[in-house]
Design goal:
Blueprint (H helix, E strand, L loop, with lengths): L2 H5 L4 H9 L3 H22 L3 H17 L10 H20 L28 H15 L3 H12 L4 H8 L3 H16 L8 H6 L4
Helix pairs in contact: 2-3, 3-4, 3-5, 4-5, 5-8, 7-9, 8-9
Family: Belongs to the sigma-70 factor family. ECF subfamily.
InterPro entries: RNA_pol_sigma-70-like, RNA_pol_sigma-70_dom, RNA_pol_sigma70_r2, RNA_pol_sigma70_r4_t2, RNA_pol_sigma_r2, RNA_pol_sigma_r3/r4-like, WH-like_DNA-bd_sf
Protein name: Sigma-70 family RNA polymerase sigma factor
Length: 202
Amino acid sequence: MKATTVQNTFDDITLWNKMREGDEKSFSILFKRYYDDLVSYGNSLSPDKEKVQDCVQDVFIDVWNYKEKVQSAVVVKAYLLSSVRKRIARLYQRDHIFRKSTSIDAVSFHMEFSVEHELIDDDYATKQKVLHLNNLLNNLPARQKEALYLRYHQGLAVEQIAEMLDINYQSASNLVYRALITLRKEWKGALSLITLLSSGSF
């Protein structure tokens, strides 16, 4: 059986709980499953790629070292993404030790979003409209942009986004809603806006 098939055999929570019991193979599968996503998200929060990779690796090291203490009932992807965000926030705190303290809510999201042109038909006007949509999305406030990324690219629920951004549910919901309202004013294409966001490249 190919490695990719093995990795897709077990759901996250099964692998997580096996890992909590000391199963190194389950830990390895989770690492391979989410490493790239975590690095990509980390790169959206810090321009230092080497430090981001260190942060992601440190998150996995902590998960393994404290496996007996981590909660069993978690959404694994959300937990790992949140852990990376918190570790990068601490990185900012350390690097700005002689400046004003940097909290988790001060970490700014700066990843560029681009809708795949292959999803769009050959109509020139439609393609130009999509380029305009990309510009609108990339000019959204950083928090709105990050909320959309977490909601539609990473598939997180609003509750999980709220926890990650250290805000209440209503505030997280408002971030997503306001961003979508801004984009929907400009997008009247055949493909739904949600489809485009979920298929976008970050």
